[in-house]
From TrEMBL:
InterPro entries: BCAA_transport, Leu-bd, Peripla_BP_I, TAT_signal
Alphabetical list of SUPFAM superfamilies matching this protein: Periplasmic binding protein-like I
Region spans: Disordered: 28-76
Protein name (database record): ABC transporter
Domain Leucine-binding protein intervals: 82-453
Organism per entry: Salinigranum rubrum
Lineage top rank: taxon: Archaea
Gly residues bias spans: 28-45, 59-71
Claim: Signal is one of the keywords in the record: yes
Regions of compositional bias (Low complexity) in chain numbering: 46-58
Gene3D superfamilies in the record: 3.40.50.2300
């Protein structure tokens, strides 16, 4: 089995084989896709030892966002290694997020290490479990920052970002999150915080744009929409972008209804919703709650349609209820980069990930591919510039390694070769150009999906220019 995975990793790095061969001798980086595997596998399915990975639950009852020790960001990097902390939920209801992200990080780290590391330094992966709660995320982040002394972090999710943002800033820790779309980050990133997933502000506009234009949903240019949003902060992030943009695009909101998550029944909420006579309802919630709400509306005789967000646009959600309930509903995921698709890079990534992890890549996998490559290239650029590795040095080079003015590269191997030759680089990923704006955000096209026969099919692509 190990031999098979090795051959897959070598094929995965094929675009940069020549570059890696040179680097090895100079020891002195899917909501994407259809999200079909989201929530189905909590484990990583990887050989973490070979990637230099260590697991740490990071759980505990600590609260607040104190910075603790190690506030000198320039002194935290350990010689002989580059360490990336994976700060995500690995237990609880959202364990699937960590399960989707970690194996991508480990696969890339293993390939980089087999080819000589980052300028001779081993890329180590340190895992920390946020349990999808603020208290546990603070404890986990404090250990990554102050004990493990990681050089940069992949994660966290929207569920826990508010609990750790002060710790990140005070300690100058570079963060590239492939999972946090929360609008709370719209104006706070860009110095230490970046993301390879679009903001919910953009996702909300994409839902409204697609709902109002039959060209993008193939069914109708809906005029009257109801909006149901779970009361968890990560779900509420979608409410303002959807409600404001639907009216901006000429639609009418019949009602905006918050509901408590985790209830056994939503009959009363559905009754109130349907009394406003919507022809479409956009539902923001967990897959479990959403399935209960759809069933209740079906039983109440609702004949209109539904639009769901990235968290529900996956196979597991469709398996939670009958096809009669879900057929025809609309969903949203990030669209693959057209350039990456045309070059075969998306297909190559999917095949090699499946060989490595034993399953298809799920939501956030491609976003993670880009986050790790950018972080590793920023670390290599920092070492080339200063001869030493600091958190500030990495953070200062995250945006430059993805600037449009540089030589286009699509993986760590080709990017490292270009950096070694003295060139500026422009990393372009599986999710598209990673041209970070002043707040560390990217733009992205979206794929509009429709449920049919128990699976999702793409019916349109919504370009970022339409938003």
């Amino acid at each position: 089995m190990a031999g098979n995975r090795l051959s897959g990793r070598r094929r995965f790095l094929a675009l940069g084989t020549a570059a890696f061969a040179g680097l090895a001798g100079c020891a002195g980086s899917g909501g994407s896709g259809s999200g079909s595997d989201a929530g189905s596998e909590g484990g990583s399915g990887t050989d973490s030892d070979s990637a230099g990975s260590t697991a740490d639950s990071g759980s505990g009852s600590g609260s607040g966002s104190g910075s603790g020790a190690g506030s000198d960001s320039g002194s935290m990097a350990s010689e002989g290694r580059v360490s990336v902390g994976v700060l995500l939920p690995f237990t609880g209801e959202y364990d699937w997020v960590g399960g989707n992200v970690l194996p991508v990080v480990e696969m890339l780290a293993e390939g980089i290490n087999e080819a000589g590391g980052i300028d001779g330094r081993r890329l180590e992966v340190v895992q920390a479990d946020t349990e999808a709660t603020v208290d546990a995320s603070v404890s986990a982040a404090q250990k990554l920052v102050n004990v493990d002394a990681v050089d940069f972090i992949v994660g966290p999710t929207s569920l826990t970002f508010t609990g750790v943002i002060d710790l990140i800033r005070e300690n100058g820790v570079p963060v590239i999150t492939p999972t946090a779309g929360t609008t709370e980050l719209d104006s706070v990133g860009g110095e230490y915080i970046f993301r390879t997933v679009p903001s919910d502000s953009l996702g909300g506009r994409a839902i409204s744009r697609a709902a109002r234009n039959r060209e993008f949903n193939t069914l109708s240019s809906y005029e009257r929409m109801g909006l149901m949003v779970g009361n968890a902060p990560a779900l509420q992030s979608f409410k303002a972008p959807i409600s404001s943009s639907f009216e901006e695009f000429g639609g009418t909101l019949t009602t905006v209804l918050d509901y408590a998550t985790g209830k056994s029944s939503y009959q009363s909420e559905v009754s109130k919703l349907l009394s406003s006579d919507p022809e479409l309802v956009t539902l923001v919630g967990t897959p479990e709650d959403s399935a209960k709400i759809l069933r209740a509306a079906f039983q109440a005789g609702y004949e209109g349609n539904w639009f769901v967000t990235q968290d529900q646009t996956n196979a597991d959600f469709l398996e939670l209820t009958d096809e009669r309930v879900t057929d025809g509903i609309l969903g949203l995921v990030e669209a693959d980069s057209p350039a990456a698709v045309e070059a075969g890079r998306v297909e190559e990534f999917a095949a090699d990930f499946e060989e490595y992890a034993g399953r298809e890549p799920g939501i956030f996998a491609k976003n993670t591919f880009d986050a790790v490559n950018i972080g590793a290239l920023a670390a290599r650029a920092a070492l080339a510039a200063a001869g030493e590795l600091t958190r500030d040095g990495i953070a200062a080079r995250i945006r430059p390694v993805a600037t449009p003015d540089g030589e286009t590269v699509t993986n760590y191997a080709t990017g490292a070769e270009a950096l070694d030759s003295g060139s500026e680089i422009n990393y372009e990923g599986l999710v598209g150009p990673c041209d970070f704006d002043e707040n560390g955000d990217i733009s992205s096209p979206f794929a509009i999906m429709k449920a049919s026969g128990g699976s999702w099919e793409q019916v349109a692509t919504l370009p970022a220019s339409e938003l």
